[in-house]
Model the fold of this input.
Amino acid sequence: MNVVFVALGGGVGAGLRYLTGRYVASYGSFPIPTFLVNIVGCFVLGLISGVALPPSLFALLGTGFCGGLTTYSTFAVESVAAERLHRPYVGVLYVAASLIVGLSLAWAGFSLTA
Done:
């Protein structure tokens, strides 16, 4: 039954990621939409990881929703693309900001609920 919860949460998360990419503009060559969904996903996963949730609810929200919302593959491709577009500083800034902000928000979310 958990696979159904993962699929439902993943569908909502992926839909939200799609809408973010469609309606939030990048800033120059900095990929704001992917950055935004990834850091929001870090915060939400941090929040729900600090709470003792039943496995089915964690499957829906953590594995499903956060898994569908966030995207490591697009993050990786956009990081490499910055170099290919001769904008290595944008790529380095994107990777550093994603790691620092993402880890900080995951910690903050966990700290709020643990």
Remarks:
- DSSP finds five helices and no strands in the chain.
- The two ends are 27 Å apart (CA to CA).
- The chain has a mean pLDDT of 96.
